[in-house]
Amino acid sequence: MVKILIVDDEERERIVLRYIIEQIKDVSIVGEAVSGLEALLICQEKKVDLVFLDINMPEMDGLETAIKLTELKDSPFFSFLTNHRDLAVEAYELGALDYIVKPFNKERVEKTINRAKYQLAHKEVIDEEVKIKLKERIDFMLERYKHHEVYSNKLPIRERGKITLINQEDIVYCESQSKKVFIATKEDGFLSNYTLNELENRLDSSNFFRAHQAFIVNLNYIKEIINFGEGSYLLKLNFHTKKNIILSRSRARLLRQKIGI
Length: 261
Hints:
The protein is of the alpha/beta class. Helices cover 37% and strands 32% of the residues. β11 (208-212) and β12 (215-218) form a beta hairpin. It starts with a strand and ends with a helix.
C-alpha cells in the first residue's frame, strides 16, 4: 500500500488528483496540504511514501519544499506537479521521482505511483537483506558466546605445575606441530594443548589471521609478504626473523581484503 500526500494550494487541483488516485489500487491518501510547511509537518507526523507536490505555491514553493523533504529522517519520494515544462532538469536534480505537467490524467499519475511501488519494493528487499545479515552476525556471536567462556585478553598456557598467562598482543604466531600447537611470543615460545581451531575462536579476530591450515599469525607483526609462486606467499615477521609463515593460495585473497591491499 503506497501512502500518498497531495500538496497543492489550489483546491480544484487537489480534488482532481484525489479523484484520480482513489481509482488506483493499493494506494491510500494519508492527507492533503495547501503549503510546503503544512506538507513537512504531515510528513513528520505520519508515514508518507509519495508526495505529489505542486511547484507554484506561495511562501515556500515546491522546489524549496522538496529540499526540506530530503532532509527528513524518513524522507518520502516526491513527484512535481506543474504547468511549466522548463523546470524538469532542476526537479530531477533534486531527486524527484517524476515530473508531471498539468493537466494530468489517470494513466500518467498511475505510472508515477507504479514507479514509487517499484522503488519501495526494492528498498524493502535491501532492508530485509540488511536485517538478515545483522541477524546472522548476532546469531554467530550468541552461538560463540554459548560454546565459549568469555575470555580476557590473556591466554592461559598450562604447564607442569603452573599456568602461564600470555598477553594476546605478545603472540607473534601459532603453529600446529603434530599433536601440540607451538605458540611463539616476542621473547619466548610455549607448547600447548590447544588446537588451532580453538585458538582461532579464542584469539581476537581483528588481529589474528588463519594464514594456513598449520598457522595463525598476528597481523601486527607481518613485515613483508613475499611471492612464493603459484599463488602462494611467505609472510616475513618482525620477530622470529628466521621463521617464514606460509600463506596458502586460498587464504591470500582473504588476507588482501582484510588488510586492504
